[in-house]
Amino acid sequence: MFKRLFWMGVGVGASFWVRRRVRDTVERYQPQRVSGEVVGAVHRLGDDVRAAVHEGRVAMREREAELRRALPG
To answer: What pTM does this model have?
Structure first.
């Protein structure tokens, strides 16, 4: 009798756990959440590109100044 109650409890607990995992997985792949994550990734990529362009321009100006100083004149 106690074995049956034990395994029944284990089964009920497992079913709640599985249901929660499935619900979380479905929510993770809903269109609103996925699109929000994509938008965030695009914004971060844009920030990274802007920072790289800025660093490149600064390095270019510094190198150009070095070359101008090295020219005889």
So the answer is: 0.51
